[in-house]
Amino acid sequence: MSQKTAKQTNVLGGLQLNKVNWEKLYIHLLLITIVLIIGFPLIYAFAISTQSLQEVVGRPTLRISNNLLGNYREAWVRSDLGRLLFNSIFVALTSTIGKITMAILSAFAIVFFNFRFKSLAFWTIFITLMLPVPVRIVSTYQVISDLGWLNSYVGLTVPLMASATGTFFFRQFYRTIPGELVEASQIDGAGPMRFLWSVLLPNSWANIAALFVVLFIFGWNQYLWPLMITHTKEMRVVVVGLRSLIPGGGEMLPEWNIVMAAAMIALVLPVIVILSLQKYFVELMIETEK
């Protein structure tokens, strides 16, 4: 190779490298901009939670003030956040575990058992996706009232446990299980429940974790149903309890700094759940691509 050709190759290589660097820089700047736009309400809410009421009602600013500890202490005491958080954790965890358990068992029965009207059973479950809790809330309330479950943990959680989404999710995954694996388990003498416990569940942890995040956030953010069936402060969940910090009317000015402080506290646990289990989303996407 001549010296001239070598120089041309080096120049082209440098241009390509610069082009790649500029593309990476552009992509990173774009992603950072999108994150800032999406996260701006959260940043602004946190800034308000650290300010005094005079600062909040004045000119809006993103400045972090020195009232953080006082506002958070006041929000915790005034709204009894400890009790509200306990109720929300119980409702979210119980409804999520119940949904996942029912989804796994129903999908297991639909995929691995042969019985009459199996397809009809699945589509009956699937159609309930068009009937979320707000649509059937009156009839559900009547059933819970007749059972005497109003203002109770059972009434808060049991109606939220049925999940057609989870059943469809696990059904699609179980259909990818090789038939040879099922036959090998049968030859080894494993019964249906042994096959579920020893084979299916160990291969389903990524799916369970991914679905757990979605269902936990759904249960945590429930507002209408807990508002309807609870009538004492002791049974309120945190999303409903936050509303009590905002005056219903009159001349009293809402203390938005206290409200935002309570909202920031209520946001901690869902964020921890998402950050702890986000790797399973990546794992699930990789397996899906394969």
Kindly describe this structure.
There is one protein chain. The model has no long low-confidence stretch (mean pLDDT about 85). The protein is globular. The chain has two domains: about 5-55; about 80-245, MetI-like (MetI-like fold, Orthogonal Bundle). It is built from 14 helices and no strands. With about 290 residues, it is mainly alpha-helical.
Give the helix proportion (percent range).
over 70%
CATH superfamily (homologous) name of the largest domain:
MetI-like
Count of DSSP H/I helices: 14
**Mean pLDDT value:** 83
What's the CATH architecture name of the largest domain? Answer: Orthogonal Bundle
Q: In total, how many domains does the architecture comprise?
A: 2
Strand content: under 5%
Query: Which secondary-structure class do the elements indicate?
Result: mainly alpha
Encode the helix/strand succession as letters.
HHHHHHHHHHHHHH
List low-confidence stretches.
Answer: none
Radius of gyration: 26 Å
CATH third-level topology of the largest domain: MetI-like fold
How many β strands by DSSP? 0
Q: What best-fitting shape do the alpha-carbon axes yield?
A: globular
Largest sheet: none
**What is the top-level CATH class of the largest domain?**
Mainly Alpha
Give the N-to-C terminal Cα separation.
43 Å
